[in-house]
Amino acid sequence: MSVTTAPPPPVRRRGRPGRTQFRTSLAGLGFMAPFLVVFALVFLAPLAYSIYLSLFRDQLIGGNSFVGFENYLQAFGDPKFWDGALRVAIFLVVQVPVMLVLALVAALALDSGRLHGSSFFRIGIFLPYAVPAVVAVLMWGFMYSERLGLAGNINSFVGFDLVTPFTQQWILVAIGNIVTWSFVGYNMLIFYSALRTISPDLYEAAGLDGAGQFRILWSIKIPALRGAIVIATIFSIIGSFQLFNEPNILKTIVPNLIPTYFTPNMYAYNLSFVGQQYNYAATIAIIMGLITAIIAYVVQLRGNRKELS
């Protein structure tokens, strides 16, 4: 009697861990390659070229020559640059909180469920964000006009200059009003989206515990909005330092009120495209980019710390 035994199962040969890991990394790199190429072309290359330009200067004798960090030293002692930077800083400190508070109030009102016609208000508040910046500035510029616009009509009605947006002391407020009108709806949507992610169970539990609307607002909604507030604040800070369209378009209406260095972006633009000082304009742009990045990072860091605490 012969006994037959089943053949042993085939042993699957395992590849070397190093080769498998290499193939996995190569596949991942293949998926990321299109993004990396686009990122390098649209972000890293312009940034590197701007830094390169900032290290040179056009001179009457010698042409475009390497000057190291002299352009940066010149910018740090340039009163026009610091005048524009201070103006943007004031604009940031005043306009951003006002805009975010208005957006927060609008989002809370829409989320409360007690506002009749909430869909209409939601679209109505967001609609100015869809209006092109040029159209918005021209529209408000017409209303600010003291001869043909709404401000002039109000002044004629009361008999004295009550509304004077096109004056030296009110022009920054007038620009802030345009920016606030345009971006309240955008920030409102950020806050409203965050509010809609709160579980209804939390409201139900708070109601069973006898919490009122103010207590629910303070203990549930505001903490849930902390991340959205940080994001909206960072976006607003970046937008404030990029202030350009509104003053640059209004300058065509009131050229005596808005100088070419009203904001650092306007200063860099006019240096580059009017004064043909590309190297110094690149220096101004690099400095403003660094200042914006540092402030946005500090805001994000503080926001994350409060969220973790």
From TrEMBL:
Transmembrane residue ranges: 26-52, 88-108, 120-143, 170-192, 224-244, 278-299
Annotated membrane topology: Multi-pass membrane protein
Recorded GO CC terms: plasma membrane
One of the protein's GO biological processes: transmembrane transport
Domain ABC transmembrane type-1: 85-299
Taxonomy, superkingdom: Bacteria
Keywords: Cell membrane, Membrane, Transmembrane, Transmembrane helix, Transport
UniProt subcellular location: Cell membrane
Major subcellular location class: membrane
PROSITE patterns referenced in this protein's UniProt entry, alphabetically: ABC_TM1
Family, similarity comment: Belongs to the binding-protein-dependent transport system permease family.
The name this protein goes by in its record: Sugar ABC transporter permease
UniProt organism field: Agromyces atrinae
